[in-house]
Amino acid sequence: MKERQNRRRTVLFVSMMLIPVVINYYSPIMPVEGAAEGVVVGSLVFFGLLFTTSLFMGRGYCGWLCPFGGWQEAMALASSKRTNSPLGHRVKWVLWLAWIGVITYTAMDAGGFRMVNVLYHSEAIISLDEPARYYYLYFPVLGLGTLAMTVLGKRAWCHYICWAGNFATLGNRVKNTLRYPSLHLESAGDCARCGSCTRVCAKSLDVQDMADANDFTDDECTLCGECVDTCPRSNIKYAWRWSRPPGNKAPQ
After folding, report:
1. Contact assessment for residue 64 and residue 6, using Cβ atoms and an 8 Å cutoff
2. Per residue in 98-146, pLDDT tens?
3. Distance separating alpha carbons of residues 119 and 86, to the nearest angstrom
4. Handedness of CA 144, 102, 23, 204 (dihedral sign)
5. CATH architecture observed for domain 179-239
6. Which of 1, 25, 34 is nearest to 106 (CA)?
7. What's the confidence (pLDDT) of residue 149?
8. Please, are residues 96 and 168 in contact by the beta-carbon 8 Å criterion?
9. CA neighbor of 68 nearest in space, from 222, 225, 227
10. Is pTM beyond 0.90 here?
11. Which residues contact 138 (CB under 8 A, 6 or more apart)?
12. 103-132 burial code (b ≥16 CB/10 A, e <16)
């Protein structure tokens, strides 16, 4: 179903064009600044919403709506180098936990959160409302991510840098563990072992092995559906109710 993937990429690329508008709402710095003043800032509100939606949609936001995901899809057109380092993932989690600790300590030191201001430092709504902000915010962020993807491989920003993605990963783990009705992937047990699903995976996952085991609960899966729409036997599908637990193969 190329049409579905074309629609997904179109949404992502449009979202990417909005980075100058929304970049403050992804900021890892503003939550710390806000915590020092007892303010829950817009990015913290967004991270909370991301966690909440991931309880039912997994990391679908990352694969379908994230502006930085669109930027990475565009970069992947120039370089298809694969990367998926467990060590890199662990380092990202260590840094993320340290960051959460800094926010928590700062808020406690300020006497706790006392108000919510989603437009904190974003009163004009548009994040980059001054040309100077492009030089100390927009270009450095995109430059760092572009360097990471060039050196390490496609979706390296998602894999090893993105702090927002960890909130979605936590919600994804909850839904995959409890297995209540929620968006996920399943295998029908009719794999041709052609490897096409693995080749097209934006996150460099071994989707063929995942399909063999009927286990698509990998933290890095963004439910983009590339594997669903590439499989020649329609073996992989989106599902809402869990017909079989992950790791439980279909009867032969």
Report:
1. no
2. 999 999 999 999 999 999 999 999 888 889 888 888 888 889 988 988 9
3. 36
4. positive
5. 2-Layer Sandwich (3.30)
6. 34
7. 92
8. no
9. 222
10. yes
11. 19, 20, 23, 128
12. beebbeeeeebeeeebebbbeeeebbeeee
The amino acid sitting at 45 is: V
Tokens for 249, please give them: 């193969």
Helix (H), strand (E) counts: the chain:
14, 4
Q: Residue 247: is it exposed, middle or buried by C-beta count within 10 angstroms (0-12/13-18/19+)?
A: exposed
Token pair belonging to 209: 């092995």
Kindly report the CA angle at 223 between 220 and 229, in degrees rounded to 5? 125
Residues 6+ apart with CB under 8 A from 156: 83, 145, 148, 149
* Residue ranges of the chain that CATH labels 3.30.70: 179-239
- CA 184 to chain CA centroid, Å, is 15
Residues 6+ apart with CB under 8 A from 14: 70
The Cα-based distances of 82 to 71, 218, 245 in angstroms read 17, 16, 29
